[in-house]
């Protein structure tokens, strides 16, 4: 009965009062017409009006508690015929405070979406916002619960959801629910994601170019079949040598490289501006005495060789597939993780390559990583690419559809990313540029920002200045036509040295003017590389 009244009321309101935020109070959470979702069937819809709602701080994804939310929550459950899946799309609609925008939010690691943790900050700012689980049990650290079906075969339906299908469902459902609730389509639609979420954003630009006006893709997990196997490279190097350096030794090498190359850019700030220019050679450290765990250790030839190979990445030198290595300055603790077990150092495989290789490439839950040397690495890499490139590569450089629909794609990546290689983002930018050819100016629809000294998704464990508001820059680009030249950035509160910087639009680099405070972005310009 109530929903009928609201329906009638919507028709008698004048257009003027209709646009007034107060009219939102008349809307009912349950009065939502569902969209047609191509290739999927809606199996359930849940509505819930939440008043003064709180989402408590949950590290690492939600650093601060969000409270006082007044939202209408709509959860749409759908299934793709033949996939035997049950996908949930969760939409939060701010009551009375809508800013006219819709945002789709992405996942991290093995999760396609972060649910409440991603929705809360956006809803608090007045955005209609959505997240999807892609039909996967939530676990950012492992795909174990869904990767294989009951007969031990790779669950291609769910992998397809994780790779691309569910991102589009989220866009279709989220935008339709938003339009139905507010009786007005969103003025602008955006994507917000980092890591897996960054990859999902690029998939949208490539495959569903009309879904979003603006896409923010941080540290995107693109070239997935290649880069995820390349994440195993440091462990393969240590296995091959049968030498597992301590984390203290590895940390020493990272800091020594930073000290050696810090001032190449003319400023001593504990940051290597362009790691590709840093020619620090680990073999020069052989024989150095370093203090580790209260003891003095001498750097050996073997350990120096391991560090050199990790930085170089797998390459033609070894007759192996060529891929990016970790940048100088990136922490080695994740991909070259070692711990002490029964008195000796052992290697630990990072959970993304572990889950990928164990379940999807090998389909062997008992796969033993401790034996993977160069030969196995080569074999795994080739198989990963052959089996999955078309399914989850997420690296199609053809963005002509996105360009045509006047979309804007803002990519950014930390240059000390310890998990996903920033060189791969630069590679994708160059591939898009090349694909577009002379007739298209890539900077009209794609801009990339590489942030010196910043870790994965700007978590703040490294000393670089982190872009403060790349999403705001994207909104200005879309709604105001202000294409970002540089992102303003500030060091994390935990950093020893505090400063602000400009993160320049690739391929420009930041250069100190030679005068002025070095802790202020005002003393820097974005210049062409050759002048730097
Ligand atoms: C909202 O919830 C908080 C607790 O999170 C409570 O202290 C406050 O009184 C509530 N406000 C209203 C208007 O109910
Ligand atoms: C959407 O855009 C129109 C036209 O610019 C504007 O009048 C309206 O206020 C916007 N809607 C919201 C909810 O901001
Ligand atoms: C290193 O491996 C250990 C043991 O698996 C794990 O507890 C730790 O979190 C890992 N460290 C990093 C930085 O990934
Ligand atoms: C590139 O993408 C556009 C738009 O999606 C499509 O029409 C065109 O066929 C694609 N080009 C190639 C070579 O696949
Ligand atoms: C909008 O663009 C103008 C210049 O075209 C600029 O001065 C202004 O700061 C921009 N506003 C926002 C919010 O981006």
UniProtKB/TrEMBL annotation:
Which one Pfam family would you cite for this protein? Tannase
Sorted UniProt keywords: Calcium, Disulfide bond, Hydrolase, Metal-binding, Serine esterase, Signal
EC numbers, comma separated: 3.1.1.-
Hey, what's the signal peptide range on this chain? 1-19
Q: Which InterPro entries match?
A: AB_hydrolase_fold (IPR029058), Tannase/feruloyl_esterase (IPR011118)
Mind listing the GO molecular function terms for this protein? feruloyl esterase activity; metal ion binding
**Family (UniProt):** Belongs to the tannase family.
What PANTHER family does the database record attribute to this sequence? CARBOXYLIC ESTER HYDROLASE (PTHR33938:SF8), FERULOYL ESTERASE B-RELATED (PTHR33938)
Give the protein name, as stated in the record: Carboxylic ester hydrolase
């Amino acid at each position: 009965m109530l929903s009928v009244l609201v329906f009638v009321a919507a028709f008698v309101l004048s257009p003027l009062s209709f646009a007034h935020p107060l009219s939102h109070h008349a809307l009912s959470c349950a009065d939502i017409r569902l969209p047609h979702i191509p290739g999927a069937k809606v199996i359930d819809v849940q509505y819930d009006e939440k008043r003064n709602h709180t989402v408590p701080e949950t590290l690492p994804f939600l650093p601060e508690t969000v409270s006082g939310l007044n939202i209408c929550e709509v959860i749409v459950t759908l299934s793709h015929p033949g996939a035997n899946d049950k996908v949930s799309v969760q939409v939060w609609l701010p009551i009375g405070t809508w800013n006219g925008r819709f945002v789709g939010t992405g996942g991290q690691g093995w999760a396609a979406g972060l649910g409440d943790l991603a929705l809360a900050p956006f809803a608090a700012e007045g955005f209609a916002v959505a997240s999807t689980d892609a039909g996967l049990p939530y676990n950012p650290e492992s795909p174990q619960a869904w990767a294989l079906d009951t007969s031990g075969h790779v669950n291609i339906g769910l992998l397809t959801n994780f790779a691309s299908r569910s991102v589009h469902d989220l866009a279709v459902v989220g935008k339709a629910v938003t339009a139905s609730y507010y009786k007005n389509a969103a003025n602008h639609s955006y994507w917000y994601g980092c890591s897996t979420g960054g990859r999902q954003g690029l998939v949208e630009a490539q495959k569903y170019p009309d879904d979003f006006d603006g896409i923010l893709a941080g540290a995107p997990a693109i070239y997935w079949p290649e880069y995820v196997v390349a994440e195993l490279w440091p462990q393969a190097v240590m296995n091959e040598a049968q030498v597992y350096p301590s984390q203290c030794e590895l940390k020493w090498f990272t800091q020594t490289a930073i000290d050696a190359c810090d001032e190449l850019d003319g400023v001593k700030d504990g940051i290597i501006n362009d790691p590709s220019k840093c020619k620090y050679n680990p073999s020069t450290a052989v024989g150095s005495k370093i203090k580790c765990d209260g003891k003095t250790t001498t750097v050996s030839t073997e350990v120096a060789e391991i560090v050199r190979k990790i930085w170089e990445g797998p390459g033609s030198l070894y007759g192996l597939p060529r891929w990016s290595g970790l940048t100088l300055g990136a922490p080695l603790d994740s991909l070259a993780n070692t711990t002490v077990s029964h008195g000796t150092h052992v290697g630990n495989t990072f959970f993304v390559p572990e889950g990928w290789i164990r379940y999807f490439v090998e389909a062997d839950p008992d796969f033993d990583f401790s034996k993977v040397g160069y030969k196995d690495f080569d074999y795994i890499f080739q198989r990963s690419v052959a089996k999955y490139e078309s399914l989850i590569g997420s690296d199609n450089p053809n963005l002509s559809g996105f360009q045509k629909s006047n979309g804007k794609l803002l990519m950014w990546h930390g240059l000390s990313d310890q998990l996903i290689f920033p060189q791969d983002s630069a590679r994708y930018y160059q591939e898009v540029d090349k694909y577009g050819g002379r007739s298209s100016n890539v900077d009209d629809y794609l801009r990339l920002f590489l942030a010196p000294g910043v870790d994965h998704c700007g978590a703040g464990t490294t000393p670089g200045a982190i872009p403060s508001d790349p999403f705001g820059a994207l909104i200005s680009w879309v709604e105001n036509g202000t294409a970002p030249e540089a992102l303003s950035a500030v060091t994390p509160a935990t950093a020893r040295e505090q400063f602000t910087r400009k993160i320049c639009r690739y391929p420009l680099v930041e250069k100190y003017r030679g005068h002025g405070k070095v802790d202020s972005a005002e003393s820097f310009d974005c210049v062409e590389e050759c002048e730097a």
